[in-house]
Amino acid sequence: MKNYLVTGGAGFIGSNFIHYMFRKYGDDINIINVDALTYAGNLENLKEIENRSNYSFVKADIRDKEAIDRIFKDNDIDVVVHFAAESHVDRSIKNPEVFVETNVIGTAVMLNSAKAAWELPDGTYKEGKVFLHVSTDEVYGSLSDPKDYFYETTPYDPHSPYSASKASADLLVKAYTDTYHFPAKITNCSNNYGPYQFPEKLIPLMINNALTGKKLPVYGDGKNIRDWLYVDDHCKGIDMVIESGRIGEKYNIGGHNERENIHIVKTIIKTLKEILPPDDPRSANVSEDLITYVEDRKGHDRRYAIAPDKIHNELGWLPDTSFEDGIKLTIRWYLEHEDWMKNVTSGDYQEYYKRMYNE
Ligand code: NAD
Ligand code: TYD
Question: Is 338 a catalytic residue?
Answer without folding.
Answer: no
